[in-house]
Amino acid sequence: MDIFDVRERLIGDYREFTSSFVDPRDERIRKQVWGRTASGYQWPAPYVSLNPNFASGGTVDRLVTDGLLHPDIERIFRLKEHPGDPGSKPLRLHQHQRDAITTARGGHSYVLTTGTGSGKSLAYIVPIVDRVLRAKADGTYRPGVKAIIVYPMNALANSQLRELEKFLCWGFPDNKPPVTFDRYTGQENADARRRILADPPDILLTNYVMLELVLTRRRERDRLIRAARELWFLVLDELHTYRGRQGADVAFLVRRTKDACAAPRLQCVGTSATMTTEGDPVRQRAVVAEVATRLFGQPVVPEHVIGESLRRATTGGAGEDMLAEQVRRWHRTGQIPSLDEFRRNPLAHWVESAFGVEPEKGSGRLVRKRIPPTVPNAADDLAQLTGEPTEVCQAAIQGVLQAGAQVIDPETGRPVFAFRLHQFLSKGDNVYVTIESPASRHITSRYQTVSPDSSETERKILVPLAFCRECGQEYLSVRRSVNGFEARQDSDTGEDGGYLYLSDDQPWPESLEIAVQDGRLPYSWTVLTGDGATVPAQDKLKHLPEVVHVDVSGAEVPPGKGVTAAWVTTPFRFCLRCRVSYERSRGKDFAQLAKLSAEGRSSALSVIGASVVRALRAARSLDKPARKLLAFVDNRQDASLQAGHFNDFVQVVQLRGALYRAAEKEPDGLTHERVAQRVTEALGLELREFARRPEVRYGKEEIWRALREVVNYRLYLDLERGWRVTMPNLEQTGLLRVGYRYLHEVAADQEIWDRSHHLLRDDNPEHRYEIAATLLDELRRNLAIDVRCLTEEGFDEIRRLSVQHLAEPWALGVRERATVAGIAFPKPSGKGRPRAYLHLSGRGALGKYLKRQYDKPGQSCSVTDAQDIIRDLLAVLTEAGLVIEAVPGDGDDLIGGYRLRSDALLWQPGDGEVGAEDRVRKQLSGEAGARVNTFFRDLYRDTSHLLAGLQAKEHTAQVTPAEREQREAEFREGDLPLLFCSPTMELGVDINALNAVALRNVPPTPANYAQ
Hints:
By secondary structure, the protein is an alpha/beta fold. Among the domains are: 22-43 and 427-508 and 545-594, no CATH class; 55-310, P-loop containing nucleotide triphosphate hydrolases (Rossmann fold), CATH 3.40.50; 312-422, no CATH class; 741-784 and 821-909, no CATH class. Helices cover 38% and strands 16% of the residues. The model has no long low-confidence stretch (mean pLDDT 89).
């Protein structure tokens, strides 16, 4: 796997995602944004760290020969592949493991402070097993608990249980261990608990909560604690987790355990990857010993704090000339050398020094690199040393790192260079400008309150920008007060908020008359008077832009001073440049205006997760258990939310991509009868990817039918108006056009319109088609569609099929509620009406649209006219067979309710150039059409099929134990490619092989990160 290529793919996907929402119109601002993107401001070069090579402590056989271990240890700790395997080779230990065994033989308590993956557990398991075997050999052994190992997380205990099974059971007759062990953490069933209490093991794996319960419950205290009289070992794994109040609680728990077990010669053992990084090594060991003494309640001397003993993986240093030659060779060839060649290679030696180890000040012993460098920084150093170009040095360094990851050391079975990339991604900051002419204002991407060129007499404030989502016009986000204008941040709320519009080429007119005359107002903001004059609508007057004059400090000044700007209040109602208007603008302006600092964090993490897992799945050199991602979010609730968001994101992308591919094959359009079948085929799923029981021999057609019904339901739900700015639908990306069968013929059939309102009757067919299509769009986008899946009965049938036949994520959610089709009534809303009712009123958004369409010189459209047109449109479309009367009028109310017939729908492919318009609520100026989000367009069109099989689940204490264990097993084997955890990874998880970890936010302490 080329991890640098994976990183480039990730950065590419994230760059496309974050830049797809904003396209600044101003050339200077665009250069600033593009320059920031090109510089990697949001994704700096990753830090690279080499995993260290540990000094060898010899094989287990050698330690037996030296008399450090009992002879039977030789049969136990060997490399084993399966339950019947006695082990082909003895286990090779690290020096720190040997030091721990020696310290344990001396009867001392000790602490092991070595890094992740250093085999800390063997540093106490081997001494425990050795002592039990010696006691059995010399006749002093008595049955009972000899060691209690306390883990902070159940998954660590679960992982250790599997390791003990491998060493103590595999290769022995009937898998019967010579030293017994068991887990008692609260996860066990009643039978397992009874068995443990009846016959306590030599080694007991538990957690600190369960140990507390064992001490306080009479039955368990009588059985387990009595069996642990004269306890030999008490082990606390992951000491760094016991901080503050929890640490005090555990310290008291240790003391109570010692007293209850009457263990005068108890050896306490602690392990930790992270304890302290301050001071020299002597001081660090003293601090750790002090903490361990306080925690254990018995002395731990600094000499018994065991750290890492490192060695170099390479041997060959060289002069600058030879190093330069190696740089050129690695850049040219990139071949994988043999182990001996790699060890002796001068450039490999230099890379190990740059990224892996360094001599410790004072002692000179090898220690881990304290601050990992980036490849570009190291390349600069190498370029200065060798005189070779920086880009050549960078390629050579990456080549050495990649080669070292593929050269295997036969002694350890691991790569010579195992390295990690630490990549930080940021949403970036906003763009800030001074209140000056666009041609000369100061522009920056770094948050500041005033411009650097401010003076004592002239304070130039910096203001964040927001951009029109359609044309990219910038607006200064400000708050207005009696003192003028000041910067307004995203979190600021209040009635005094708004925006300043400044433009050199298209300034807002000083007078309202000129604004109307020049056509600067949206059409819906004007009306025609009786004499044919265009004037602003009365209800819009209070929302019209106000011309103001502002200086660089934000103060309002008289005309002729400062700059001339237009002030508009929130909510944002229309763009002063492109005139796109929002008829129902309320609340926040996120849907109308984009900011560079807001991309949707959940969406961003879903995009990142999908990109990483996709790249890992494409790496053929990785085994299935290694193609997964472990992601940390802020808390339990966020873990559940993010897992749900990811699954929804993946499924929606797959469905939309499949719909586009299916529609592309049928240019005339997919109909209701065929759409679900064609989209299901386009998904390209195999039975094992969606079936609850894929192994069944019979009834497979029922499973496929269940999938088709769910797909059909999801497709109809996606016909609803696209409301998620951070995930536009197929129509918004221009890849889909939803049409209506025979509507062109209906619009051209003059006879069917003769009895309708005169404005419809006398209209031309093309305009009638547009009016009728807009009405049908209203029904469709409000799901006022006559289709069985949008009924309670139809949803229940789909749910039953789903529960019986489908697996996650294709099965309907347990808590998912039915979405029932709406009903459109051609009349104003009344009190107490259900939310599913769509009221098409002459005074509402559709009525205003019709008024815009038919108000012309010499012709007007009143509210009553608009209401009559709506009713007549529905009547004609009902007669034509495109609409049905779902609820007939009765009693005093003779007006019925309508739904769009599902067989009238046509799903047609789009070209991806122009998005679909919402003519009722959003007016676009000019011929350009709605802007398309290119990231999602390309994702649906080109990449969606690569997301098949991606799924995420959360792993928190709120998940039931049985379900949590199932998820751990799935994640361990790679069947579950993405797992979301809380920052402390609460109950832990056995990761098996893992190549990628993501953090939504940086955790509060290094201890959280170490886990």
